[in-house]
Design goal:
There is one protein chain. By secondary structure, this protein is mainly α. The protein has one domain. The protein has 5 helices and no strands. It has helices at residues 5-10, 18-25, 28-34, 42-53, 58-80. The longest helix is centred in the last third of the chain and has 23 residues, at 58-80.
Amino acid sequence: MMLRFEEWLTGQQNRKDVIGDFARMLDLNDIHQQASKRKLDEHRNWADVVIKLAQPGYIDVFNSAWQEFLLAKKAALDALD
């Protein structure tokens, strides 16, 4: 099973930093309504949601969170090998 950003982000809600703040700020239940169902690009879907829902300062936080997510995703895939 491939790690998805929403799952990873939910796991970050207890962090005491800006990524934790970002994870708590987003209403993850509302994300499915905001994200386009047509786009297959998970990053683009999330970027669109962040631009619509978050304060401008969270765009940089999203980019940092996405980079951490990619590392976690790679580690999860490597663990399967």
